[in-house]
Structures
1.
Amino acid sequence: MGVNGASPCASCKLLRRRCAKDCIFAPYFPSDDPHKFAIVHKVFGASNVSKMLQELPVHQRADAVSSLVYEANARMRDPVYGCVGAISFLQNQVSQLQMQLAVAQAEIFCIQMQQEPSNISNTTQSSFESSDDKSFFFQNNHLSHNNHQYLDFPSSSDHHVIQDSFKRDSFFGHDMVS
């Protein structure tokens, strides 16, 4: 019988065997959740799971079972890569979102810099009205020379330039950013 003595655990029920008092599966695979053991058994095998659990200290077994269930579910969805495939997919999403964020920030910066020359020309015009020609020439030449480097940003249609700098290799040797 299982831990509570009422019914065998999910593993013993699935394997059609008598559930002993010291059944290693009983604490982690209760009879009310048979799918949990069925999927772990299908991917890893009952014998392998039993060996893994016996090698672990009791306080780590629950976490191990949780990891086995997660990996078994991932293997059912993606038999080749399992949870590594899910991690790779999420890393790809993060890379794409970082790229989109960088493009948006560059566009914002470009717009801000395009608006700034109009503020500079207003400032220099008022300086021109209040001072002589030499100071206006110095201020206007100084400001336009320093800000010219910020005005040549690629437009949003040129996002492939930024995209190339964000490409990363995945574990499997192909680009993460598509």
Note: Residues 133-178 have pLDDT under 50 and may be disordered.
2.
Amino acid sequence: MWDNAFISCINRFGRLDIVVNNTADMEFDVSIDDRDEMNDAIMRVHYGGVVSGTLLAIKYMGAPNGGKGGTVVQTTCCVSATNNVVGYTKVIGDVRSSHHLKIRTMVLCPRNVSDNVGEALIYILEKGSSGQYWIVENEETPRLAE
């Protein structure tokens, strides 16, 4: 299913330069009573989606696969998945991987629903480096997380 979305974009625009891997908050089945089962479901959706989307970006944009390179931005506001998403992004976005793949990978974490994610995204696309974790909150300019 996701392969088709990537292929459609490439067919329509001739190339793929940016992938925004959005793991927005989702409603889960309230009948899940087991806390561990709920945590597993959250991690499958949020972290699993990031890994799957990033691997597809590498498949279609990565230089070793004939791609021209590009940028992947993971967005997450799921507190329980953020550490995993950031850790994964730092590994994929380290200097050697980024140079080999020709793909820059970053995380953008909006702290509030009202934060202007679009402006923040443009800001980090212009200023960011691979492997970085950015936070935007209170409609302010994004800042690097420590």
Note: The chain has a mean pLDDT of 87.
